[in-house]
Amino acid sequence: MTADLSEAFSFPPQPDPDADSRGFWAATAEGRLAMCRCQSCGLWLQPPLERCRVCAGPTEFEDVAGTGTVYTFIVQRQAAVAGYLDKVPYVVGLIELDEQLGLRLPGRIVGVEPGEVVCGLRVQAELVDLPGGEYRVPVFRPLGAE
Question: What does each C-alpha distance from 48 to 22, 102, 135, 143 come to in angstroms?
Fold first, then answer.
């Protein structure tokens, strides 16, 4: 493997924001976690949309607390994603945020051994720099863990 190719695999894939997700990435850049919300009926939307899927009202990004519960998860034991090749095993979870039943956000679960992660585990989002780019991404840490 050449040095250039080796370097390409040392960083995780970078986000490619579109019109619907730009508000999410702008908020993380400012150190906030924000999700898309209908301004008419108040429904939180994930994935983000320009118009509410229920009432067709306009949407905006609003801050969320970042607390939630592990809805489901996987333990990645085989190196498969650039930037995480030397980090296995690691946990990727789908976190149901406290703001609304069904409002779920994927992310790595950190600060806990993979074998200790269970559905229902209470977690808190933390924004971390994504190596190889200018983005910050949410990871989730068990509440009370340092």
Answer: 9, 14, 18, 26
